[in-house]
Amino acid sequence: MKEKIKHNQIQEFESKIKEYENVLFGMNLYYQGILLTWESIPLIGKGIVKSNRMSYKSIEERMTTAINKSKRLLEEVRQSPNKLPLLQHFSFPPITGPGLSAKTKLVKALVEAYREIFSERPRNKPITKEESQYLKVVASQKI
């Protein structure tokens, strides 16, 4: 019974890491879409890109740090199962709550649309402006 509980806790933590990786990827898709849409528009576009770049970079840094720390912790727990309680005390940055839930729902829809449209495509391959626009259309149908 104890082994099953440990296994479940590890699986839940792995799922949480995957969720955060997906949210980060969705944020990247969202930010790429902003760049592709607004970058070439003088004045207004530059301001929109600049403000979103600052927000995105801050979020990206927090999320990447949390993902990397959580993966290291998970590996520690696998090496030393007596450290399992540390998983319960790990704190991921919030992705829900006031001002976050709608954005999280949007980026999750973008990831789901990406999986449907580009199921075999590596995530690190940049998207084109047309692909970004199509992703937005498909994602909007999921919200």
* Helix-strand sequence: HHHHH
Mean pLDDT: 88
- Uncertain stretches: none
Give the tally of β-strands.
Answer: 0
Provide the helix percentage. Answer: over 70%
Number of domains: 1
| Spatial gap, N to C terminus | 40 Å
Radius of gyration: 18 Å
User: How would you characterize the largest beta sheet?
Assistant: none
The share of residues in extended strands comes to: under 5%
> Which class of secondary structure composition applies to the elements?
mainly alpha
Our count of helices gives 5
Q: Give the overall silhouette.
A: elongated
Which key terms come to mind for this protein?
143 residues, 76% helix, 0% strand, elongated
Please give a structural write-up:
With 143 residues, the chain is mainly alpha-helical. It has one domain. The protein contains five helices and no strands. It has helices at residues 2-38, 44-79, 85-89, 101-117, 129-142. The protein is elongated.
Quick structural summary:
Helix content is 76%, strand content 0%.
Strand and helix layout:
Layout: H1 2-38, H2 44-79, H3 85-89, H4 101-117, H5 129-142
